[in-house]
Write a structure and sequence with these properties.
72% helix
Length: 125
């Protein structure tokens, strides 16, 4: 529970939020924020924690892993990484998304021991 309080405090500091600011941004009661910050047990439903995480820009899974609702496994870490990539991808212009996919394919091919033509050679065929 202490990890959640610390994570919330860190996020609030980065955003410049007071507890009241976070309450408004997350649409969660001030008392819930206060109880979480004071490490009171049995506080914060998964929905409330998800709202707080989103308001602070922190991956939701980190809150759930700290809370003990979700165990930290390699699969969960992978899913968290995929969510981060998806958020970045959605912010890119369409042409940059293609560059991102080319780069990801190149890295994958390299990790699989396959040789690919450099991007500049493929573009100038």
């Amino acid at each position: 529970m202490e990890k959640i309080a610390n994570r919330i405090l860190e996020g609030m500091k980065q955003k410049g939020y007071t507890p009241a600011d976070l309450s408004r941004a997350a649409k969660v009661s001030k008392s819930t924020i206060s109880k979480l910050l004071n490490n009171q047990p049995q506080v914060g439903s998964p929905e409330s924690l998800a709202k707080i995480a989103r308001a602070l820009g922190i991956p939701e899974q980190e809150f759930f892993m700290d809370k003990g609702i979700m165990k930290d496994t390699p699969e969960r870490r992978r899913d968290a990484e995929l969510l981060r990539l998806e958020k970045l991808h959605s912010r890119l212009p369409k042409e940059d998304r293609e560059v991102l996919f080319d780069f990801a394919n190149m890295l994958f091919s390299r990790s699989q021991g396959q040789k690919r033509k450099p991007i500049y050679e493929r573009e100038h065929r």
